[in-house]
Predict the structure.
Amino acid sequence: MPDIKRAGTDVTIVSFGKMMKIALKAAEELEAEQISAEVIDLRSVRPIDYNMIVESVKKTNRLVIVEESWPLASIASEISFMVQKRAFDHLDAPILRVMGGDVPLPYAPTLIEAYLPNPARVIKAVKEVMYMKA
């Protein structure tokens, strides 16, 4: 069962695992800019409680998904599909995914930092779905 780690009204951020730290840090930084992010921790990817995500999107009208994996065949892709299927009319912006790069995971620490999602990329995505300048 997912857990709402932070209630919000402007945008829904969904994540799981170690990327939750990134999602929560981004939400904290967004709060300083008067952007209220609801952060949902999936806690499980099988099964996924789509209803909780959909209800949050119906409230916020925007969705950003943060995941560490490659974009192709990801959990974020599946969530995006189900939300657009069940709540398309509630979306005020396209769903954005903040993912790892579409390349093999690099070895060098500086390249790993560039590959993985980080708070700055999440904040940029949130501002994009809110039609704000980053």
